[in-house]
Specification:
single chain; mainly alpha; Four Helix Bundle (Hemerythrin (Met), subunit A); 5 helices; elongated
Length: 157
């Protein structure tokens, strides 16, 4: 039995439960902003959306290092990692995420970059609304695909 793969599968499941908490915070902050009109809640929404993608990316980093044996490098490594997870590695692993999931996550990857490079007072609720609205459905799809991949890892261990 390969305990490393079993531990990796358990780590994925744990990270997914953490991400559920992050999405709850996104939705709560969005609702508070909507009800109060206080734009300081936008900062919380943006930070938690950043955390949402970063958590998914942490899973992808572990998979790339542990299973693929290589983590992308260079200026656009975040994008390359996302692409890497959407592709099968023949004889090693199936794709981790589907093409539609890749496309949705790419929006969050792009937003992660914005959060890291723009002052918070520049965030606009109208630009965040789509990401907030889609976060739950995107997470449900990512979760289903990562749980399926965890099952693949369980069978390999």
């Amino acid at each position: 039995m390969n305990t490393g793969l079993k531990n990796l599968a358990e780590g994925i499941r744990h990270e997914l439960s953490e991400l559920e908490q992050v999405l709850t915070r996104v939705q709560e902050a969005w609702e508070r902003m909507r009800l109060s009109g206080d734009d300081f809640y936008i900062d919380s929404v943006a930070l938690n959306l950043h955390g949402f993608y970063s958590g998914i990316e942490r899973i992808f980093e572990k998979l790339a290092e542990t299973i693929d044996g290589s983590l992308p490098a260079g200026e656009n490594w975040h994008q390359v990692l996302l692409i890497q997870m959407s592709r099968e590695t023949e004889g090693v692993r199936p794709s981790v995420i589907s093409t539609p999931t890749f496309q949705k996550l790419n929006d969050y990857r792009g937003f992660r970059h914005v959060v890291r490079n723009v002052y918070a007072y520049h965030f606009e609720a109208s630009k965040l609304e789509k990401l907030v609205r889609e976060a739950g459905p995107v997470f449900n799809q990512v979760k289903a695909e990562l749980l399926a991949f965890s099952q693949f890892l369980d069978t390999q261990s």
